[in-house]
Amino acid sequence: xxxxxxxxxxxxxxxxxxxxxxxxxxxxxxxxxxxxxxxxxxxxxxxxxxxxxxxxxxxxxxxxxxxxxxxxxxxxxxxxxxxxxxxxxxxxxxxxxxxxxxxxxxxxxxxxxxxxxxxx
Length: 120
Prior knowledge:
Elements: H1 2-11, H2 14-57, H3 69-98, H4 103-118
Helix pairs in contact: 2-3, 3-4
């Protein structure tokens, strides 16, 4: 009984708790990475689908002037969405590699998000 109580006391120590917390952080980061890959694939598919629809529905191949500025702004917005998702994935990957949040990546991601927001 005494050994059991000692093992419980050791399990609750700060060191063991921090090890457990690091494992949880790593697991959550991996789950987020998989989610971002799914979002990226969906966003690329959506971008390709949108471009094809715009090209064929407006008959842009026959008359390039029908490819409006609004359409281009939407396409750039979708591109920036993909870039933002890639940068977030890079942030997660960098965290998994070094277990540190890299400020430069966060700033670049924020600037891209602001640029994307200013399009609309």
